[in-house]
Structures are given as C-alpha cells and as structure tokens.
Fold:
Amino acid sequence: MYLCTVNSFMMTLEKAYEKTTDFVESIPKTERKRYGQFFTSKKSASFMASLFTPNIGKATIRMLDAGAGTGLLTVAMVERLRTDGYEGNIIVTCYETDGKVLPTLYANLQGLAEKYRIQYSVITENFLLENTAGQQYDIIIGNPPYLKIPRDAPEALAMPEVCHGAPNLYFLFWAKSIQQMKTDGELVYIIPRSWTSGAYFEKFRTFLFGNCVITNIHIFESRDKVFDGESVLQETMIIKVRKSTVPPENVIMSASATADFKNLRHYLVPYTTVVAPNNFVFLVTNEEESNTLARINTQPETLATINMKMHTGIIVDFRTREVLRNEPEDGTFPLLYSHHIQDGRVKWPDGREDEYVKTEKKGLLQENADYVLVKRFTAKEEKRRLQCGIYLHSEHPEYQYISTQNKVNFIKCREPEEAYGLYVLLNSTLYDTYYRILNGSTQVNSTEINLMPVPTLETVKGMGRQLMAGKDMSETSCNKILGQWIR
Ligand SMILES: C[S@@+](CC[C@H](N)C(=O)[O-])C[C@H]1O[C@@H](n2cnc3c(N)ncnc32)[C@H](O)[C@@H]1O
Structure:
C-alpha cells in the first residue's frame, strides 16, 4: 500500500487518457482479456462522474475505484469534484492487481494529486479477498472486470450471499463495493445488462435491493462501440445506486446510440416500473414500454402464487425414440408438440410423425387434464413472442395420460375457465409486449413467466368465463377482455 499527499502541477482526463491509450497499445488484447481488462472511454468516464450528487459541504470525501486500471475513472471523478468547487479533502483508494498497469496508474494518480490536492492509496491485493470491515466510502466509481469464475473459486466462496452457480466477477465487485459504502453513499458502475432478470442473479438482486435504490440508468443502444477500440459485444449499461432504503419517485433514465453520448435522450420512469416487486429491473426505452410495465407490475399475484406454474414439456424426443409411435395402438397416449398450437387451440392429432407415446414410465406421462400450452422457441422477429393454445381433457376423454415434447411449455389448470383466463393474459398484446421487454432471447423461459405479475385467480377465472361465452380467441378479443379487468 502506498500513500502520498502532494499539490500543484498538471493532470487532466485528457492526459490520463493518453497514458491509457499508450498502455493499451503496449499489451496484447488477449492478455488483457484474461483478467477482464477493458478500459472506459473518456466520454463514458466524464458521463459517469457527472451522475454523482456529492455533498460539497463535507470536510472529507472518501472514494473507491476497485479494479482501477490506469485510474481514468478516478481522474474523471476528482476533476468533476474540484471543477464543481469542492474544496475539502479527497481521499482515494484504488485497487488493482495487474502489475503491468500499475506504473501508469501511479503516474496518473500522482499527477492528479499534484494538480488537485488529493490523498491516494493503491492496494495491489485482490479486492474480493481483502478483509476490509466497515462502511467507509461516500463515492464509488467503477468498471469492474467481466469474467466468469468457477463456483468454487476463492472469490465466489468469499461471497456466498450473492452467488448462485458460477458467478461473474462484475457483480461480486459490485456487491463488495456496496458493503463498503456509507449510508447515503453513491455508486456508479459501467456493467453488462445481464443481472437485470433471470434466476442466476436472483440472490444478487435481493442483496442489491436490500441495501440500495437505483437513481439513474443509462442504456447504450448499440452493443458495440462502448469500449474504445475494443469489440465487447456485451450489452452494456451505466447505473447509479444510492445506499438507502427510500426509493426516489422516478428513475432518471437516459439512452444514447454509442459511447460518444451524441443524441442523448433523458426520460423519467416511475421507480416501481423500473424495479418490479419481484426485483426484476426493466430497462425501459420509451413511454409505451413504461405504460405496459406500470399496468403489469401492479398485479398482485404470479403464476407460482396462484398454483399454476409453467413447466417445460417432458419428452426429449431424440433421447426417447423407443417410446414414440406414428399410429395409435393399445396403450398409446397423445404426445403434444408446439406445432399442435393452432388458432388458440391444441389441435391434436394433425397427422405428423411421432404423435403418440407408448411407455410404462410414469415420468414420461402426465395427467390428461386441462392445459395451456406455450411455444418455447419464438424469435424476436415473429409477430408474437408468446404463442399459446388451450388443451381440454374433455376433447380426448379416452386417455388417462398425455405427454408433452420439451419444445413446448405447459401450465396445468384445474378447470376450463382457468385455462381460458390464462389464455386471455398470454394471448394479449400487453403481456406479449411485457415479455419482449423482459427477454431478448428466443426462449420463452418458465422461470421468468412464473415470476411475471398476474391478476388474482378470481380475475383470471372471470376473464376466462368471458372468453368462453364470446368464443372469439383472437388477440383483439383478448385485449378487449383484459382491458375490462386490468386498467
Ligand atoms: C474492466 S477493467 C477497468 C479498468 C478501469 N477502471 C477503467 O475503467 O478503464 C478492470 C480492472 O480490474 C483489475 N482486476 C481484475 N481482478 C481484480 C481483483 N480481483 N482485484 C483488483 N483488481 C482486479 C484488472 O486488472 C483491470 O485493470
């Protein structure tokens, strides 16, 4: 650990950036990639620094830059504080483990100290394994390393409260930084978007929202061009959180095509729309999306809480070829595929191959009950992401069991009106738009669907009764019914 205090001389973000560029050019990209070393662009660094709302009446501001690289973010932050007229003490702590970048980091910090009168220390130990107790920092700025590590790596074992499977260093840095932040302290990070939904980050999100609230989010609309000269194809965002349990009324959202921040757009989105009750975070890009989320996120239940969980079909056909049949025979049962979903119904059989199963294995069969089937693979480009159909056991009462192929999801219902009611939800434009905002991949993921807010069971059944009476299964008809129940 090194500690120095100096004043006067010259160091600007521009100079620190030149030194960063020299460093980047001196080390092969493959080597830097190994420890997740991508440097922030000058404009992103200034933008990140501009998001803080520091209390400039304070005698001392302590700041942290963990995974500091060449120190560009620290330079941008200190410059911002001094340019705003902050005259108190600035005490900076940087963590950096890469010996090759350290000379550039020291040079930049020394220059900064000489120009702006700061105290700094560089800690060359692993940030995630340092035994640092206490909440020390007012300001935390960072671009953490992006690197997946094994679930039994020492860094993962050190933070069991946020890990689920093999974690990525970026959210371990984020969690550890939060632990070290003072109450009402502020953190600005540039990170991938992946943490915002899905089961893998659930523990992390619980930890995050147990300690912090989001105040600002910046979205880069283009995947590429966020890190100067680097082809980082992760979708990237900038986030600011405050250590507090009192959320602001709105999150200040902004978006720009690339990291040059040209055509920067700002908009306010209600906090409860961005951070849903199930802790999913929605990166809202316009008013229509904001309205969709506001309507859905206020619904009181989930499919899990009304006991109607979605599951993935049980037959992986290429692994169980021996149980498949083209024609009915003694002891065969219907096997439902996604292609059987047609015009809101499950139309089985339709004359294709392997539509029957013959097996004694109970694990390959399910009760012949009422179901809503939902296609598991649908592309962004298709008119709808959620494509579903109703299967009623009364249409095939001769069978005790049925089965489902694993490219279709199913929800078991207790009575037809539940199936029709769920169909109204899943076939509406509102829920389709919601799912598009939530999930950009081609899979309709049951974990996400099961956590999606839905109305009470009574409402679902009420909508179902209305659809059954009207008999029009179209999207327009579902929208009309939904509009009467969900404002
Ligand atoms: C994505 S780079 C960001 C560098 C700089 N903050 C910037 O924004 O340009 C992350 C940095 O973290 C460092 N690093 C990786 N693992 C670390 C660890 N466990 N402890 C401290 N630093 C680490 C890497 O060497 C790298 O310089």
Remarks:
- The chain has two domains: 3-283, 310-485.
- The mean pLDDT is 90.
- The domain at 3-283 is CATH 3.40.50.150 (Rossmann fold).
- The first strand starts at residue 2 and ends at 5.
